[in-house]
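anyone seen this seq b4? input:
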Amino acid sequence: MTACSSPSPIPAHFDAFERIPIHTVLVHGHKIAYLDVGQGEPVILIHGFGGSMWQWEHQLPTLGRYVRVITPDLIGSGLSDKPDIAYTPDQMLDYFARFMDALHLSRATLVGNSMGAGLAIGMALTRPERVDKLILIDGLPGQVANKLKSPTIKRALESRAPSWMVSFGNWLFGGLMIKSVLKEVVHDPALLTPAVLERSNRNRRRPGMIPPLMAMRYSLPIWETDFAPRLGTLTHPTLILWGQEDRVFPLAVGEDLHRTIKRSKLVTIPGAGHIPQWEQPEQTNQAMIEFLTPRTTES
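predicted toks r here
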């Protein structure tokens, strides 16, 4: 009977992270894991809150044909160390700048998704000489609490539960939480295959993940007072990419950010949610390549 039954449908996507060597470098005595592909002008891809380098897997081979693509796991995330620090914006910016120093990068184009865009903006505001261009993907606006529409992420940021309780809940129910978050972040649920969910769960289960996440949520008030009011002062060439179906920060938020940053260009990515570089990589990559290498694409 099994032999005569209909075969399982073949999935539309093959879940694989290309075999790229993972490098590490020490910053303040702690390991930062990163990928480094391609040659040319340096471009650093910065993941968002609770994310990791895998969110850029579809950019590495394509962008690597035009520029040098560096993809770190930020301190406290992914494969990088998770020291017992406060993870304030100033600390995150210092770790990032020293990461660039360790790679002997005086300047780079910064590409940030969600809260990673906030880190890129922070670098442009506090260390403008270190930033060439900015690419901001679905983040980070001012008045985050008012503009954030994801119920799950909002509850996580507003929770005041102690670290031990959150860690226990993550161990007990983390798989359900990850699936709930991804359903709000990704527009097409067909992309949330068992392999993708398992990879997300492996990242969630890494030792020491919860305290940095909890510490980072306290950075939002600092973002609102020290950085968001200065968004209009940015002078770097800026590309804003926004998923048309973003349920975390709706498209209207991206349009408002575009109006605030004077030298910016807004490109909407149809059929994508909060991480369009992963959900619609072809369209996202093309927009990024045209912005990064205008003379190359025109020739």
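The CA atoms of residues 169 and 177 lie 9 Å apart. The beta strands are 23-27, 30-37, 42-46, 68-72, 108-113, 131-137, 238-243, 264-269. kinda curious what u guys think
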